[in-house]
Amino acid sequence: MKPAQPGTPDWHSRGSLRRNGGRPCLAGALLLWVLLTLAPAARAADESYSFDLSEIEKKSWHIGGYAEVRPVRYRLNPDGAFYKLRFYNRHEGDAVDEFNGRLQLEGSYEKGIARLYMRTNTDYRRSYTGETEKTSIYEGYGSLRPSASFKIDAGKKNLKWGKGYAWNPAAFLDRPKDPDDPELPMEGYIVLTADWIRSFDGPLKTVSFSPVVLPVYDHVNDEFGAADRINVAGKLYLLLYDTDIDLMVLADGSRTTRFGFDFSRNWTSNFEIHGEFAWIRDQAKTRIDAAGSAETERYDAFSGLIGLRYLTTRDTTIIAEYYHSGTGYTAEEMKGFYAFVNRGWRTYLAGGGDGILQRALLTADGTYGRLNPMRDYLYLRITQKEPFDILYFTPALTVMANLNDGGYTVSPEAVYTRITNLELRLKASFLYGGPDSEFGEKQNRWRIEFRAGYSF
How many CB atoms lie under 10 A from the CB of residue 27? Predict the structure, then answer.
């Protein structure tokens, strides 16, 4: 049996699959026997009917894709520190509009023990800053599977480590998720990796080991960290007592040494709990105070996540997670940065130039301005499938709270899927928080967006 892969659509059914040992159910086997038995008689009775097994054979190639348009309106927050950083020399009014387009193409070819896969992503944006267009290869790799228990991949790949839904602190070789839309495909890194799998009888049902080599050179994974390094990592997977367990490690290289652990267990067919933990050696954190003095601290950081997923009898899905980031800033450290921005803002208004604001903007990139830069967060998402028997309609509500400063966001949305392969989504996000809070200092008060996405 293969280990459960992240992103499995029917997450709540994994427990039942394990109890059957991954074998087809008896009812399915009987149904197939009946079809095969009755097919000759049906063909004799009606020559226009035929049962061709070639029609259900797996094809060696696949081509598909996804296209979407997404207009957005933002209500600006003139009191926010990040508004002052990005709009101090602009006059955009109370709101700004943005138009986004995305095209993803994917294809695969499989022959014998070999498989090729590629996914490209093109993003188009027209906003107050102008027009931008970027095309990237999100994934492009080749696979060899000489046996059912061994596979090797080489190329650009998203490894999808971790069990968390909104965050993955132990995903050492993946790019960070956007908790506002955690299911979006992400760009991978160029790696050489393998998977070795072994099954057993008894409490320990499956063991797999996945070593990874990730090089960092000029124009090769150069966003990952320090250049001219070969990074070595590995993941050990265990299916023990019907619990998925991963042990991960990233050796010292472009980034400092990291150790990770995660687990996932279906207590019942509709209730799952999961956790994910990471220990990062010699983490560097740079902070800045109101006077502009910068200080870098190095320490061992611990990050962790605990969560659950529950599916009710009324098709309501509840996902809840608590996340602690040991690499994040405290409330006092964030206040020092906001004070520095406000100092630069006052200097600019007094005719002293934008030097302080420019320095603060450089400091914000990748640190204070990253997604969820603080330490403790709570995430809750509730999705209701077809309420009041309204077919093809799924509303949802997402709440994310910053437990360090009391700010939070509320995001209602509605999805309609009446037309096959076409998804229409209307979503709004409202930010609440006082001065010196993460969501109170953002550049926007709220946003509303419409997304039309078509899969082909």
Answer: 8
Element of type H or E holding 143: strand 130-147
Give the dihedral of Cα atoms 7, 12, 14, 16; nearest 10 deg: -160
Query: Of the candidates 181, 193, 116, which has an alpha carbon nearest to the alpha carbon of residue 154?
Result: 193
Measured in whole angstroms, the distance separating CA 402 from the mean position of its chain's CA atoms is 19
Check: CB of residue 115 under 8 Å from CB of residue 142: yes
Q: Which is it for the CA torsion 85, 86, 87, 88, positive or negative?
A: positive
Please enumerate in sequence order all residues whose Cβ is within 8 A of that of 287, keeping only pairs 6 or more positions apart, or say none: 294, 295, 297, 329, 333, 336, 337
pLDDT in tens, 73-104: 999 999 999 999 999 998 888 999 999 999 99
pLDDT at 398 over 90: yes
Q: How far apart are CA 407 and CA 439, in angstroms?
A: 6
Question: In what helix (H) or strand (E) does residue 18 lie, and over which residues does it extend?
Answer: helix 14-19
Distance from the first to the final alpha carbon of the chain: 31
Integer Cα distance of 337 and 339 in angstroms: 5
Helix runs in 302-405, H state only: 331-349, 355-363
Q: Which helix (H) or strand (E) holds 410?
A: strand 408-416
Gap between the Cα atoms of 341 and 339, Å rounded: 5
Q: What is the DSSP letter of 80?
A: S
Determine contact, residues 104/185, Cβ cutoff 8 Å.
yes
- Which pTM does this prediction carry? 0.85
| Nearest-10 Cα torsion for 157, 163, 169, 175 | 20
For 334, list phi and psi in degrees, rounded to 5: -70, -35
What distance lies between CA 413 and its chain's CA centroid? 19
Question: Around 137, how many Cα atoms within 13 Å sit in the side-chain half-sphere?
Answer: 13
Q: For residue 305, how far is the Cα from the chain centroid?
A: 15
Per-residue pLDDT at 20: 38
Tokens read off for 274: 């999961």
CA 441 – CA 452 distance, rounded (Å): 30
Question: Cα 427–428–434 angle (5° rounding)?
Answer: 155
Residue 344: phi, psi to the nearest 5? -65, -35
Q: Is 40 helix (H, G, I), strand (E, B) or coil?
A: helix
Is it the case that residue 401 has pLDDT exceeding 60? yes
